[in-house]
Design goal:
Rossmann fold; alpha/beta; transferase; single chain; kinase activity; 5 strands
Length: 208
């Protein structure tokens, strides 16, 4: 019943790897979706966000205005810290509930937590394996401009707001290079799946 953390910087191809592992039978828990789940209208998290940053963070229908919140906290470390203090504990509880549910349904399940902010928020959790999707910052910036319509300045700001590539790579048990053709990325994900027992066993052995 391995619990695997899959992380990577913005536009690193992490979701492509997650989809491939799901095709092999992994249960994917998506941290971004968990965040959306805990911020549903009427939730304690959403109320706390409005209390901390103002009702302007809410749309007329009571849902979170994600663009307004991003504009409010981006580039302001103190505001980001306040937001994280509200959101991260709820995400931790809900993600753990989903892990437990998956293993309760199938004790032999392979659960993959697709999590952008592993190095920032969840590194100390008891992962059986940490997989990092990696592409150089300039490649990811190009993807943000070409595929997501950001300006070069916006892309650079988003990348620089995350931990460095070096810091992310330093925590990896497995690195999947995603700067080449899609087929190469998928082949590496396939190889990871085929070697999962060996890799998890090696990491568990190091922790003893």
């Amino acid at each position: 019943m391995p619990l695997i953390a899959l992380t990577g910087g913005i536009a690193s191809g992490k979701s492509t790897i997650a989809r491939r592992l799901a095709e092999h039978g992994a249960v994917i828990v998506d941290a971004d979706q968990v965040v959306r789940d805990v911020q549903q209208p009427g939730s304690p998290v959403l109320r706390a966000i409005a209390d901390a940053f103002g009702d302007g963070m809410l749309r007329e229908d009571g849902a979170l205005d994600r663009a307004a919140l991003a504009a409010r906290v981006f580039g302001d470390p103190e505001a980001v810290g306040r937001l994280n203090a509200i959101v991260h504990p709820a995400v931790r509880v809900e993600s753990q509930r989903q892990f437990d549910e998956a293993f309760g349904s199938d004790p032999d399940a392979v659960v993959v937590y697709d999590v952008p902010l592993l190095a920032e928020a969840r590194l100390a959790d008891p992962w059986d394996l940490i997989v990092v999707a990696h592409a150089p910052a300039e490649v990811r910036a190009h993807r943000l401009v070409e595929l997501r319509g950001m300006t070069e300045q916006e892309a650079a700001a988003r990348i620089s707001s995350q931990v460095s590539d070096q810091e992310r790579l330093s925590i990896a048990d497995v690195v999947i290079e995603t700067d080449g053709p899609l087929e190469r990325t998928l082949a590496q994900a396939d190889d990871l799946w085929s070697r999962l027992g060996e890799l998890v066993g090696a990491r568990r052995g190091l922790r003893r």
